[in-house]
Amino acid sequence: MTTDYSSLLQNLFGFPSFRSGQQEVVDGLLNQRSSLAIFPTGSGKSLCYQFVATQLPHLTLVVSPLLALMKDQLAFLHSKGIAAASIDSTLTAEQNKQVMNDVRSGECKILMVSVERFKNERFRQFIESVAVSMLVIDEAHCISEWGHNFRPDYLKLPAYQQELNIPLVLLLTATATKKVKLDMARRFDIAPENIVQTGFYRPNLNLSVLPVVEANKNQALLDELKRQQGAGIVYVTLQQTAEQVARYLQQNGCAASAYHAGLDSDVRQNIQQDFMANKLQVVVATIAFGMGIDKSDIRFVVHYDLPKSIENYSQEIGRGGRDGQNANCTVLANLDGLVTIENFVY
Fold it and tell me: What is the DSSP string of 263-284?
């Protein structure tokens, strides 16, 4: 049964209608059917849980892998007047207590946490004492050993759902092979008919491959960037490559910065903020960058090194052109980097 939620959607979020796939997911959940939603990056996966959460009697608990992602989503919810919070490492004891009180009193509708939070005995006791209507798992491919970002802590989530008697689950991901998709659904007893998958084709992304020998790569990158307008991301495989390439671009007059997991978190945060504010034109990044970035006007994505897999590639280029305008996605290709990728595989 399909209900028309358009006036509710307009009132709550200011959107005139659902995008492809969203209505189906919302209907399923509001009819008490756990679901798996596989939508391309930037096509509104989060709205599915955000809308449903406002219609459920109790708390919606969201597990998200990245702090930056949580903060983005919280800022969006607060801008719509929806009571949401996170329990994370940045909170003071006082703030933490306030959030827990708001959740207990039912004032807070959506609580966001990282998967690691479940290891905390106090948190588990707290969440056991609260009625939870729905568990949402963002970047849910992390639960599958066949997935490209497998995280063992995610494997415990089905057991937590059982222990906490949470009746409804929503799994969200942008990339999943058939094997990963079925694996995720099986772990949470989601019926095949409750897997909603929309197409991955995004007509505004222009994909190209540029053959270039390793020795000429920096020059080729510079030439490529001169052809681009606006801000973008250059993806590399290794942290030291990120540093070297960023230095080369800076020396050639480019507002560029390296970004990788080896940097302090406040340094990373500053880079993100500068990029969002268009003070930086180019971020030269390892895979660590992007999951938490909700910048809609990224105009180019360059793969300086070969992407690690097709799933990684589709997720990384998916960060371009989320505003619907064109974005250019270029791979600077040669086979020299294969050894590095093979080492990652081993």
Answer: S-HHHHHHHHHHHHTTS-SEEE
- Architecture of the domain defined by 205-345: 3-Layer(aba) Sandwich (3.40)
- CA torsion, ordered 106, 156, 33, 181, to nearest 10 deg: 140
pLDDT digits (tens, 9 = 90+) for 192-239: 999 999 877 788 999 999 999 999 999 999 999 999 989 999 999 999
Cβ atoms of 233 and 288 within 8 Å: the answer is no
Residue ranges matching CATH 3.40.50.300 in the chain = 6-197, 205-345
Own/partner long-range contacts of 255-258 (Cβ < 8 Å, ≥24 apart): 255/279, 255/280, 255/281, 255/282, 256/280, 256/281, 256/282, 256/283, 256/284, 257/282, 257/283, 257/284, 258/283, 258/284, 258/285
Write out residues in the chain with pLDDT < 70, as ranges: 1-2, 41-43, 148, 288-294
The CATH number that domain 6-197 falls under is: 3.40.50.300
Task: Tell me how many helices (H) and strands (E) the chain has.
Answer: 13, 13
Please give the full DSSP string across 91-160, using - where no structure is assigned.
Answer: S-HHHHHHHHHHHHTT---EEEE-GGGGG-HHHHHHHHTS-EEEEEETTGGGG-TTSTT--GGGGGHHHH
- Predicted TM-score (pTM) of the model is 0.73
- What integer pLDDT is reported at residue 110 of this predicted model? 97
**Bridge partners for 233 per DSSP:** 283, 301
CB 172 within 8 A of CB 37: yes
Residue 165: count other Cβ atoms within 10 Å of its Cβ: 9
The pLDDT > 70 percentage for the chain reads 96
pLDDT in tens, 249-267: 999 999 999 999 888 888 9
- Other Cβ atoms closer than 10 A to 113: 19
For 304-322, how does the pLDDT look when each residue is reduced to its tens digit (9 = 90+)? 999 888 878 888 898 899 8
pLDDT value of position 250: 96
For the chain, strand residue ranges (E) read 35-38, 59-63, 84-86, 110-113, 132-137, 168-173, 195-197, 205-211, 231-235, 256-259, 282-285, 298-303, 327-333
